[in-house]
From TrEMBL, chain A:
Residue intervals passing through the bilayer: 6-21, 28-45, 65-85, 106-127
Pfam assignment, any one: SpoIIIAC
Keyword Acyltransferase set for record: no
The protein's name in its UniProt record: Stage III sporulation protein AD
From TrEMBL, chain B:
Name of protein: Stage III sporulation protein AC
The organism of origin for this protein: Paenibacillus pinisoli
Segments traversing the membrane: 6-25, 34-53
Cross-referenced NCBIfam families: spore_III_AC
Pfam families listed in its UniProt record: SpoIIIAC
The keyword Cytoplasm is assigned to this record: no
Keywords assigned by UniProt, alphabetized: Membrane, Transmembrane, Transmembrane helix
Amino acid sequence: MEMIQIVGLGLMATVLILVVKEQKPMFAFLLAAFTGLFIFLYVIGKIEAVIKVLEDLANRSGIPSIYLKTVLKIIGIAYIAEFGAQIVRDAGQESIASKIEFAGKVFILVMAIPIISVIVETVMGLLPAGSGT
Amino acid sequence: MNMDVSAIFQIAGIGIIIAMIHSVLKQMGKEDMAHWVTVIGFVVVLFMVVRLLNDLFQEIKTIFLFQ
């Protein structure tokens, strides 16, 4: 029944935004941002349980926690970048939104560098010495 | 959740009332007063949005980036 609540909230907020937009477009933008924040906050609370299960699984299977930590950080960066870009895009600033997404991609790449280097080292270790000849 | 949903109604109500006050003051010929009312209402709503944004970022930090 929570889905119905979210959809009802969205519809109600949309009607309110349409009403307010006639007089004050600035308030309409803030209202849209607030609604988006609210739904995001609500969903984040649900994701917490999934993350806990993932952590538990990783601990039990003996995966080094640095990998899971990096993956979670990447997911967090992706969520924040997507959210910010969408709000800025709602306000009509397409160029700033694309810059935010670009920054998100760069940060994700920076986060992924240690994992990539570990993979490369593992592959190098698997190769028998002198196989290149 | 109930408390926060009322905040959406609050923001919409503030917007409508500010628009009303703005048009009334403009009819009375007090243009500068009307603009100040708009700015103050905007700042109040901005405070609410920024507070919720802070909540969201703290939540994301504690869940995803657990520091």
